[in-house]
Automatic annotation (TrEMBL):
Protein name: ATP-binding cassette domain-containing protein
Every ABC transporter domain range: 11-241
InterPro entries: AAA+_ATPase, ABC_transporter-like_ATP-bd, ABC_transporter-like_CS, ABC_transporter_ATP-binding, P-loop_NTPase
Any one GO molecular function term: ATP binding
Listed PANTHER family: ABC TRANSPORTER ATP-BINDING PROTEIN, DOXORUBICIN RESISTANCE ATP-BINDING PROTEIN DRRA
Cellular component per GO, a single term: plasma membrane
The species this protein was found in: Streptomyces alfalfae
Length: 333
C-alpha cells in the first residue's frame, strides 16, 4: 500500500517557548512552513520575531518545543540545520572596508569552497544582484539598497534551500524595496523556502503565502492575507450613483428594509450614506455575502452606476490584533 503521509514542512515548530528571566518572549507558538513558500511573521517591536529567527537558525537555544528545519531536529542535529539554511539579519553582515567581490570571496572561503568554485559563484551572484559594476569598490561606498543586495548575495553563496530574512528591507527606499521583493520572488520560484519577518505590512501582503501575527509572545492569528483581512470588521460594498433620484430611492430603500443576511444589518437599515451619492453596505467581501447583496438589490430594483468591494487591509488586521482589543479574534489554522 502506498504511504499517504505528508512530507515534513521546511520549517516546523510545536510549543516553541523562550523566556528571559520571568518574561516569556515566545510562549508556546506553533508554526508550519511548507517547502517553496514565503512565510511572514508580523508583530510590533518586542513581539519576539527576531528571537524566533535566532532560535530556528540555531543562534539561540529554545527553552522548549519540537523544532525541525529542513527535516532535521534542531535539538539533536543543529549542524545539519546550519548546512541547510542561510540568514540575512536586521543588520548588514557586509564588511565596508573591503570590496563587494572580496566580501563574496570571504563568504566562499567560510563555506570551504575551492578558489575556482568560489570565484565562479561570486561572479554569478554579483551579476544576478546587479552588482558587477560596483564589485571592485569598497562596500562602504554602497547605497543602502546595494548593501542589502550584497548581504543577501553573500547569504546565497552556500546555496541554502531555506532562508531567514529578518526585516531585510528596513530603511530602504520604495524602489530598493521593490527590487528586493523581486529577488525574493525569484528565489522562491527556484524552490527556496523563505521565512520573512517584517514591520512593513504591504511587504507581507505582497510576498507571503502565509502570515502569522505575533503579539506578546503568542500567535494572535495566522492564515493567508485574505483570510486575515476577513477577521476584522470594516469591509463593505460601496454603491455609487450619478442620478440624484436613483440615489435617494436607494437610500430610502436601504433605510427602511433590513438586508437579507444578519451580518449586514445595522441601526440605519444596513447602509451608511455619505455626501458623494454613494451608499456603503457592511460586508466581509465573501462571494456568499456579495451574491446575497446583489440578489437583494435586484429584488429592490436598485441599479447603481458603480459597485466596488472594499475589505480591510493588513494595517487594520495588525492594529486589531496587537492593540489589546477586548475581544481577541480566533486564529485561522
Amino acid at each position: 500500500m502506498t504511504s499517504t503521509t505528508s512530507p515534513l514542512p521546511a520549517i516546523g515548530a510545536k510549543g516553541l517557548r523562550k523566556s528571559y528571566g520571568d518574561r516569556y518572549v515566545l510562549d508556546g507558538i506553533d508554526l508550519s512552513v511548507p517547502e517553496g513558500t514565503i512565510f511572514s511573521l508580523l508583530g510590533p517591536n518586542g513581539a519576539g520575531k527576531t528571537t524566533a529567527v535566532k532560535i530556528l537558525s540555531t543562534l539561540v537555544t529554545a527553552d522548549a518545543g519540537d523544532l525541525h528545519v529542513g527535516g532535521h531536529d534542531l535539538a539533536t542535529d543543529p549542524q545539519a540545520v546550519r548546512a541547510t539554511i542561510g540568514v540575512t539579519g536586521q543588520f548588514s553582515a557586509v564588511d565596508g572596508l573591503i570590496t563587494g567581490e572580496e566580501n563574496m570571496l570571504l563568504m566562499a572561503d567560510l563555506h570551504h569552497l575551492s578558489r575556482k568554485e568560489g570565484r565562479r559563484i561570486a561572479a554569478e551572484l554579483l551579476h544576478r544582484f546587479d552588482l558587477v559594476e560596483a564589485a571592485e569598490k569598497p562596500a562602504s561606498t554602497y547605497s543602502g539598497g546595494m548593501k542589502r543586495r550584497l548581504d543577501l548575495a553573500m547569504t546565497l553563496v552556500g546555496e541554502p534551500r531555506i532562508i531567514f530574512l529578518d526585516e531585510p528591507t528596513t530603511g530602504l527606499d520604495p524602489r530598493s524595496r521593490h527590487t528586493m521583493w523581486g529577488i525574493v520572488r525569484a528565489l522562491v520560484s527556484d524552490g527556496v523556502t523563505v521565512f520573512l519577518t517584517t514591520q512593513y505590512l504591504e511587504e507581507a501582503d505582497e510576498l507571503a503565502d502565509h502570515i502569522a501575527v505575533l503579539n506578546d509572545g503568542k500567535i494572535a492569528a495566522q492564515g493567508t492575507a485574505e483570510e486575515l483581512k476577513r477577521l476584522v470588521p470594516g469591509g463593505h460594498v460601496r454603491l455609487r450613483f450619478t442620478d440624484p433620484a436613483a440615489y435617494r430611492s436607494a437610500a430610502d430603500a436601504l433605510r427602511d428594509v433590513s438586508l437579507p443576511h444578519p451580518r449586514l444589518r445595522s441601526s440605519r437599515g444596513g447602509a451608511r450614506i455619505d455626501e458623494e451619492m454613494s451608499l456603503s453596505i457592511p460586508s466581509d467581501g465573501s462571494q456568499r455575502e456579495l451574491r446575497s447583496i446583489l440578489d437583494w438589490l435586484d429584488s429592490a430594483g436598485i441599479e447603481a452606476d458603480e459597485l466596488t468591494v472594499h475589505t480591510p487591509d493588513l494595517d487594520d488586521v495588525f492594529f486589531a490584533l496587537t492593540s489589546g482589543a477586548d475581544q481577541p479574534m480566533e486564529a485561522i489554522r
